Amino acid sequence: MNMKKNRISGVIALFLCMALCTALLSGCGSSKANSEKGSKKADSLNIMIWEGTWSEEMFEDFTEETGIKVNISYIDNTDTLLSKMIEGNAEYDLIDLEGAYVESFIDGELLAELDKDKITNLSNIREDYLANGPIGDSEEKYTVPNMGCSYTSVIYNKETCPIEIKSFKDLAKPELKDKIAMVNSTISLYGEALAACGYQPDSTNEEEIKEANELLKSIKTNVKAFVGESAVSQLENGECPVAFCWDYTVLCADSKDNWEKFGVVPLEEGCERFQQYWAVPASSERQEEAAELINFILRPEENAKIYKEYGGVPNLNEDLLKDYLSKDFFESPLYEKYEELFPISWSVAVADEQISLMDTYYTELMGNE
Fold it and tell me: At what angle do helices 56-66 and 287-297 cross, to 10 degrees?
């Protein structure tokens, strides 16, 4: 499964303001439309999802069973999602939303509260995922976790990494000169650096961010490649024996050889946890049908099709999926490692103040030679 979550930096207040205005304008005629619709079922749903993540066969099964066609738009980052919503070329009924953005979307009145009575398969989801809702929606009134957690941490080649890595600060050691691949996600970089310096990963204290920036400068001298989406190629082709990235899921899904070849570090300061959620835009006039699709995806026999195609960490209870997946699916070290990372991980919510500060120092960091 392509688990890249390219949380690029950017100020989101303007995006959200524009999206809210668009939603309000498009909603002006919604009452009439809904009344005209009455009890008639929609014949299609427009959804936005991350490419390389979801099984098209699963959506085709939904269409075959319900008669509702699923029109898919693909996104590569959340700014793209916002832009598509603002453009208003299509009314979206279901979106695949990063947990870091949930609070901002709710504050911007962009999401509809879900009718959980219509999503009866919620009980299939792991209890720990349901008990840890995204920031801003801890009770998951607006969201449903759609896959298992992933993490941004240090991945290393067990055979060629020259040192033992325990902390993010270890990436600055001279033995790692020109041996590191690193994602250029502002939030991931500064969140981890802040945590390694003993601060909260969502700090807006400029002195603390400045100290984190100094740590990143020292690490940058060892970085051979900054990558926007994935460090898999650098790891697999041997170009870099170490990477700070979110690709352990992909490596484990790519080849069983990678199970023994690569390890992921439970960093002393913890690591970033991120999760995706289904959410229904407030402007959607097909909210009931969107809930029906969420419920369909949570069926074990349908949900398993995602992991047959892409691998990854399911959000459903293992006992419900094991009859639909290969015998060795849950033997991957991914599951043991990710269980180890969960209790030491942290999440952040995208916020203008922090991103504005981070962007200032990120510009300095990337221009510093």
Answer: 120
Residue ranges, the chain, pLDDT below 70:
1-39, 85-90, 368-369
What SS3 class is residue 140?
coil
> How many CA atoms does the CB half-sphere of 268 hold within 13 Å?
11
> What does the pLDDT read at residue 229?
81
- 258: number of CA atoms within 13 Å, CB side? 21
Asked whether 244 and 193 are in contact (CB, 8 A), the reply is no
Please state, in angstroms and rounded to a whole number, the distance separating the CA atoms of residues 30 and 38: 12
pLDDT at 355: 85
What is the C-alpha separation between 343 and 341, in angstroms, rounded? 6
How long is the chain? 369
Q: Give, rounded to a whole angstrom, the gap between the first and last alpha carbons of the chain.
A: 35
**Cα 15 → chain centroid:** 19
Answer for the pair 148, 249: CB distance below 8 angstroms, yes or no.
no
- Distance of alpha carbon 294 from alpha carbon 6, whole angstroms: 24
- Alpha-carbon span 25 to 23, nearest angstrom: 6
pLDDT for 212 equals: 97
Beta strand spans in 123-270 (E): 143-145, 150-157, 180-183, 223-227, 242-245, 262-264
Q: Which domains does the chain have, with CATH numbers?
A: 13-148+275-329 (3.40.190.10), 150-273+347-367 (3.40.190.10)
Tokens of residue 285, six digits: 């006039």
CA proximity to 281, closest of 29, 112, 34, 119: 112
Tell me the C-alpha distance between 108 and 15, whole Å.
10
Number of Cβ within 10 Å of residue 64's Cβ equals: 9
3-state secondary structure of 308: helix
Is 315 strand, coil or helix?
Answer: coil
- Residue 319: CB atoms within 10 Å: 9
- pLDDT one-digit tens code per residue, 246-296: 999 999 999 999 999 999 999 999 999 999 999 999 999 999 999 999 999
What is the per-residue pLDDT for 19?
Answer: 55
Kind and range of the H or E run holding 44: strand 44-50
